[in-house]
Design goal:
TIM Barrel; 8-stranded parallel barrel; ComA_synth_sf; Aldolase_TIM; hydrolase activity; Phosphohydrolase
Length: about 270
């Protein structure tokens, strides 16, 4: 088998191909080097759709523009983290932020309010502004503060308003820890929230932040391999794809016992 080819001897779940609207894999880059990105792209390009340069990393990394250009040539959309926009909002520098994002070559802007007390009207205005400037808008819903828990009604109300304001994607907060927003302090899914937002009219726009393997596996078992998942760490891209395709114990379907009464494989 030559380099770049994949085996075909298994019948696996069908996966959409890029550019896609389902089965999105959204990366959280916490400050990887340009060399590290170059090294991983040959293996991971086909699986990654959106690459977020998290929080303020693009502001301090002198090679960020080169990284963005490299990802663009690989067909991966780049996104500037929402925390940087929140800081710009606090400093009344949002137009400077948008000019920076455009100059750097970002395709997407994340608009969030999880780290500040940004009024809802200001967040909606930022979504509209980013949209008008030609960015693909990812609106993050949910707080980074574990003491601030939205009710199911509040989750639905906010994501609907953000979508109606022009957000292309609604990112469901989980943070890099996977212990806030959609999840409790132990990392378990808040099922009442999940079921409320998954039944929403904008469910096709949802990207669930799921940094932990158990969270990824749970959401794949719940909604299938084409569920949109975010805040995936760079080193977990290939691992996530095995979960999507049932090539890891966490997502293997039960195998019927063979005619000799062989053992069944079950979820861990």
């Amino acid at each position: 088998m030559s380099a770049g080819q994949l085996p075909t001897f298994l019948d696996l779940s069908a996966r959409s191909t890029k550019p896609r609207r389902t089965g999105i894999t959204h990366i959280l880059d916490k400050g990887s080097t340009l060399a590290a990105v170059e090294a991983m792209l040959p293996s991971a390009t086909r699986y990654v759709d959106i690459w977020k340069l998290g929080f303020g990393t693009s502001y301090v990394d002198p090679m960020a523009a080169a990284k963005i250009a490299l990802l663009k040539t690989a067909g991966i959309k780049t996104c500037v983290g929402g925390t940087l926009l929140e800081i710009a909002w606090l400093r009344e520098r949002t137009e400077g932020f948008f000019a920076f994002a455009a100059e750097m070559g970002f395709d997407c802007v994340e608009v969030s309010d999880g780290a500040t007390d940004m009024p809802r009207r200001d967040k909606l205005a930022l979504i509209e502004r980013a949209n008008a400037l030609g960015f693909e808008v990812l609106s993050e819903v949910g707080s980074k503060d574990p003491s601030k828990r939205l009710s199911s009604v509040e989750w639905v109300s906010q994501l609907e308003a953000d979508a109606q304001a022009g957000a292309h994607w609604i990112v469901i907060e989980g943070r890099e820890s996977g212990t806030v927003g959609l999840y409790d302090e132990t990392g378990k899914v808040r099922n009442e929230v999940l079921h409320a937002i998954a039944r929403n009219q904008f469910s096709d726009k949802l990207i669930f932040e799921a940094p932990q393997r158990a969270q990824q596996a749970f959401l794949i078992r719940e909604y299938g391999p084409e569920v949109n998942l975010g805040n995936i760490l760079i080193d977990d891209v290939i691992s996530l794809e095995t979960l999507r395709l049932g090539l890891r114990a966490d997502t293997m379907q039960l195998l019927a016992a063979d005619e000799r009464g062989g053992a069944r494989l079950v979820h861990a």
